[in-house]
What we know:
Layout: E1 14-16, H1 17-24, H2 28-36, E2 42-44, E3 51-54, H3 55-64, E4 84-87, E5 90-93, E6 96-97, H4 98-104, H5 107-116, H6 129-140, H7 148-161, H8 171-188, H9 203-207, H10 218-230, H11 238-248, H12 253-264, H13 272-286, H14 290-298, H15 316-325, H16 332-346, H17 355-365, H18 372-393
Antiparallel strand pairs: 1-3, 2-3, 4-5, 5-6
Helix pairs in contact: 1-2, 4-10, 5-10, 5-18, 6-7, 6-8, 7-8, 7-12, 8-18, 10-15, 10-18, 11-12, 11-18, 12-18, 13-14, 13-16, 13-17, 15-17, 16-17
Amino acid sequence: MTDQPEPGRPEAPRLTTREAAELLGVKPETVYAYVSRGQLSSVRAAGGRGSTFDAEEVRALARRSGRREPSPAGGDLVFRTGITLIEEDRYYFRGVDATELARLHSYEEVAEWLWTGELRPGVRFEAPPETLAAARRTVGALPAHSGSTDRLRVAVTAAAATDPLRFDLSPEAVLNSARNLIPTLVGALPVVGGASEGAGDSLVRQLWPRLTARPADAPALAVLDAALVLLIDHDLAASTLAARVAASAHAHPYAVVSAGLGVLEGPLHGAASGLAHRMLQEAVDRGSAVPVVADHLRTGRRVPGLGHRLYRSEDPRARTLFALLEDVPQAAGALAAAREVVATTARHAPLHANIDLALAVLSVACGMAAEAGETVFAVSRTAGWIAHALEEYGERPLRIRPSGQYTGPRPPQPTP
Length: 416
């Protein structure tokens, strides 16, 4: 079978047999089998050496057969998503600058808008009493030394057990579960000190006493709320990919969040802010960031809170939080130390502040534990995982199925 371009119309780029086989994930012989069965059309290459194939036709066959297209960068899996765009050192939620959303709207408002495309001013998420009670009992049974992510993981499991409708994957059912789950996660965390939240309080007011014993003030709450918004999503980070894999298998939304939490705890992801907190606290205690940075470099350790593979300059999330932290009087010392960390390290390598360093300024300045940034990250990103789950539920099930490249001994091998 042959294709001929329309007169006057340039011929689209074509693939060689090898290129078509790589895109389909098959051997070249299988490509010719597709041609013989009428699943692909081919054209004899110039000079009569081999055949060429229409790229779009091959991609369509790859989609039908469950194969995945490699990215232009080579090797990474590419997902089509309408949630987050990262471009030219800025990032956008559904086309709107995420830093502007963080300045203008609360976490609940942005989460609702990200899920539905509808902005609901003043929206509040409330935990069902039965669900919250079960989560608190389960969290209360953990050892005293358990971390916040440990508590969040078991709280998700407890919340799932109280929801008999969790297997309903219709958009409205998933959203109802999300609106209930997020405040349940916050409410299940122990209060650090002082009075807890009041009925109908915003999520940020509910979260504050679970991060620090210090009383809340408006500027500090504004920083925390902005941090929650800024961290909702960041394209296909490792935890988000795990969440989409779970959703691809039609796992219920609680299981999707559990998958995300399992990856988030890694020191190269959600737990990175704890490393930045400890480094920044040491710089404040010693009165200078210079010896702290020097110690990291001397021992071959990376200076935490600096650099991001997706941004050439300063992380826009950090830039936004630093600007808001200027209005928090108690943050002046930690903010100055963070800037000294950046300036000192710049003599060695041109690295800029990232979101972990900005979270560390907030946690150090407000008397929070080192894991506070990780807690904020986990609570916030739950909304993003749900947004990605909603997208993935609409795709072909189990489409995320990489093929392993076996490197073990070839059979037959003797039975041990």
